[in-house]
Structure prediction request, 372 residues.
Amino acid sequence: MSRILPFKKPSWDYELWKKVSNYSMLITEEDIEFLSLRDNGESSAKSTFWKKEGRESRLDGRIKIIDFIGLSKSFDTWFTYLELPGSKERIIEEIQIKLTNKNHYPGGEHLLNIGINEDWLDIDWGLLGRIIGSAIANEGNRRRWWVHSGRDAKISNDFWLDLNEKTIRRSGGYQSLDHDDWKDLVNYFIQHNLDVESEISRGLGHGPTNPIIVRNLGNEIEYTMSPLAHRNRERMRERYREHGKEESKKNADEYAKFHGELTFSIIKTAIEALKKNKYAEFILIIQGLCANHIMRTQLSQQKIGMHLFSNLAIRRLTRGVEALPLPDIAQELDTGFGMSRVLSILHDAELIDWYTVEIEHVNNALKNIKDM
Prediction:
């Protein structure tokens, strides 16, 4: 095993970064391009870049480097603000105001009737990781780096297009399906490997990421697209129009090719909102992305999304670990997507921070930890 940390000592990750962080440097764009061009998609566990012996410095082959990655510090603003007295109440109040905007959130009153609570401020890192994994697969395919394309995102989009065709506009400005039309739609997609009702049941525990609102009106049941999912789809359409095109069933295949680019563009919008202290806007964008994504991803996409990105977020939140040694991550994931290319996409989207540390400092830190 080519790991930096001993397999039975994963909890050393916090101490290791604490000791080497002062010697770390943010990776340069030139280094990212250098690695991406030479990463041919072999197993990350076998790549010569991610070994405990380090990789050669691009500028001086005599120097060996260990790479570290962590959740982008852009998210620290969110974590810090939530700890302030009264901050959660202020965000919830602003969310409630935004949901009354029927142009942006048609049907928002249904969410208000259900209730906006502190659950709305919780990010489902596992689901967000799946979305990011799908977007990485799609974007890498668009760049012709690999053959996987995040097909689950296309199926989700096909579902929303079909749902939109069948819905009836209601007096409140939102659109919905009655029970019979809903069942017809569900049965059609079951035949195409998408069990919509199963996905909805998974979202019931976290209201803001639930893709469909089911309303029992007594004499009938009404099915409505989540206003957050609706807003997310509008954002994606706006960005797609920048390519001079409109989304429709006729060009669904072409639209699907831009899924990754559009998703990362929206994530950047969320991060920009966070930088401007627009906390309600940030969380509504993130929850909208999650509500929009119906179908769960393939295992390979879960590796580069849920198991990579989500793991960084969870370690940051639960144990304060700001960065992990990349050789250890490469060994655990053992993905053939091309690790440096995956990280390049994540870095471009401002989702991770990527550091380099000369191996001498890493080895000295490990020795000190072992001697403690």
Q: What stands out?
A: The radius of gyration is 22 Å.
